[in-house]
Structure formats: C-alpha cells, structure tokens
Amino acid sequence: MLLILVSAFLAAAANGISMVAFPWLVLQRTGNATDASIVAAAATLPLLFATLVAGTAVDFLGRRRIAILADAFSASSVAAIPVLVHTVGMDALTVAVLAGLAAAGSFFDPGGMTARQSMLPEAAARAGWTLDRTNSVYEAVFNLGYITGPGIGGLLIATVGGVNTMWVTAAAFGASILLMTLLRLPGAGRPHRDSRPEGVVSGVVEGLRFVWRNRILRTLGLIDLAVTGLYLPMESVLFPKYFTDRNEPAQLGWVLMALSIGGLVGALSWTWLSRVSSKRTMVLIAVPTFGTAALIIAALPPLPVILVLAAITGLVYGPIGPIYNSVLQTRTPTELRGRVLGVMTSMTYAAGPIGFMLAGPLVDAFGLNVTFAALAVPILLIALACPWIAALRELDRGELDRA
User: Fold this and answer.
1) How much is the pTM?
2) For position 134, which CATH number holds?
3) Which residues have a Cβ under 8 Å from the Cβ of 217 and sit 6 or more positions away?
4) What pLDDT, in 10s, does the model give residues 14-31?
C-alpha cells in the first residue's frame, strides 16, 4: 500500500508541476489565451482514447508493468522541453511543439493512474483496510501530490524559469518508476490468459458495454464528464490567464494549492463521513457547492476570497473520488477492473477538449468574467437535476452488480 501511495503522490506532483508550467510557457511566449487553450486541449484530447486503451493494457500486460511504462514515457515527454531548449534554443518551443509534448505526456499518464488504482483492492486486503478507507487515503495522497506540484511549479517558475522546472517533473516520474519496480502484490503481474482481453478493440468494447449496462456507473460517468469538462478550462486556461496578466505565477500555484488542500481534507474526511453520511448525500452537496463557488469566482474577487472558495470547493468535492472508486470496485468483476476503470476515467476527460476550445476564444472575445460565468452556470443546472436522478439512489448499494 505504501509503495502505491507514494508512487501515486510523485506522479500527481509531476502532473501538478506540468499543469502550471505548460500554460505558463505558452502565455509567456505569446500572451494569447487561445494559444494556451490549444496546448491545454492537446494535453486533454488524448486522454479520452488513452484511458480506454490504458484499461485494456492493464488487464492485458499487467498492472505493475503498465505503471512503470507509463511513467517512463511521461518523464521522456517533459524532459524533452529543456533538452530542446539547451540544444536548439527557445525558438524551438513553438505552440505546436508544446502542444505535441503536452499531448504525448497526457497520453501515457492514464496508464499509470489506472494501473495503480486497479491494485487498490488487493493492497487494501494486504493492509487490512476497508475499501472506503483505502480510497479515501489514496485520493487524499493524490490531492497531496497536486498540492505539492503546482506550489513547487509556481515557485520554480519564479526562480529558475519554466523550462528548467520540467527537470523536476521528469525526476518525480523517475522516482515513481523506482517504487513500482519494488512492488510485489497479488494481481500486479500479467493476468492469466483466460482473463485477458483478446485485443485492444474487444477489450474497450467489453468495458464500454459493462459501464453502459450498469445504470449507476453510467450515470456517475455522465455527471463526471459534464462537471469535469466545465471545470478543466478554469484550472488550465482561465486561472493561468488571470495570473499571467498580473505577472503572479506564485499566486496561481497558491490557488491550485488551496483547491488541492481542500480536496486532501475532504478525501481524508470520507473515512469518517462514510460512517455517518450516505454517498448520495455527498454528491448532492458537492455539485451545487462547486457551481456556486465558480459563479462567485466569475466576479474575480480579491485573492483571499478566491483562495477560500477554492478550498471550500476542494473540501466538498474531496469525498467524490473515493465514492466513485468504491462504487466501481464493488460493482465490477476483478478481471474487468482495468477496462471498466479506463472507461470511467475516459468519460471524465471526454468533454475537456470541447471546454478548452470554447474557453480560449470566449476569454479573448468577452473576458474572464463572462467565461467563468458561462462555465459555472451549467454546473449549477446539473446540481438542480441531481436530486431527481433515480440512479443516484443506488449509490449506497454495495453488492456486485453485473446488470
């Protein structure tokens, strides 16, 4: 369990640094929010396909092997930036090149994430933990990585520059690889031939079919698709644009850090809250709070207000990750876990590219206030619909559901 948690932390921290560094490099060179949106979309667009493939790869090649390979490729994609600058020069960092490297890095990230999450039930059994506790701690550690990553990223950009910051990202991925090579856990190796998918396409189809036929997984996936698609442009385009215009990279890191700190506390709190609150109640609280906070941020209030709202959003949304993971783990057969997890994760990112491509032009045409509001209002509409969605009443059923 410790090896998985620390590896997840390092990979999340690496991605957190990239989250700040990539938009900063683009905006520093062009100052154009549309260019930042292109790079952000490039970093998100491969996730839809990559997560589907990652789930099948995990069930075919093995969980530990995919975790190692994914982090190795991710490390190479971010290390390419300082290598290009030191060999060719800053002119090599065009929007197209940065978009390509961001896409390459994001393509491999889901493999490591899916592989580590697929090993959690077995690690929980080894540690003697419940699934609620395991998923709570895992999500908390993952958020802790995003606390550390953007904070370090913002400080490093302010001191050594965006290019050299990428060396730290590559080093974090390297340390994660080392930990995964030490892992020994039942189910971490290559699955038995009888339980492996026949091929990539058939594996993806099996995962899609299972999720679509399971009403609660389908509903959670669609809600997550919509909310995440509206949120990602705020994190990767709107906030970087706002703080770049103000020439305050460290404050960008603080906002992302506040969000992650709230998420860390919220995820950890699920260990206790799961005993006194239902999963459905937490969903009905989290989504409207998120939308309300985003709508207030649309007014671009002073930094302390933004920090408080970001922390509150993270706090109420922190338990959602553990809840989704527990539902998936209790309703999915072991041999299908990677494929189903890949489908659910791909649904999370599916709307991201559309949001990015809309957000950049909206900012350039109407400004940050209007764009923030345009993204926040649909989240509130989703929140209003949630109490009437019948499938959410099944959230607190714990048995395996194959239908």
Assistant:
1) 0.72
2) 1.20.1250.20
3) 210, 211, 327, 328, 331, 332, 340, 344
4) 988 887 788 778 877 777
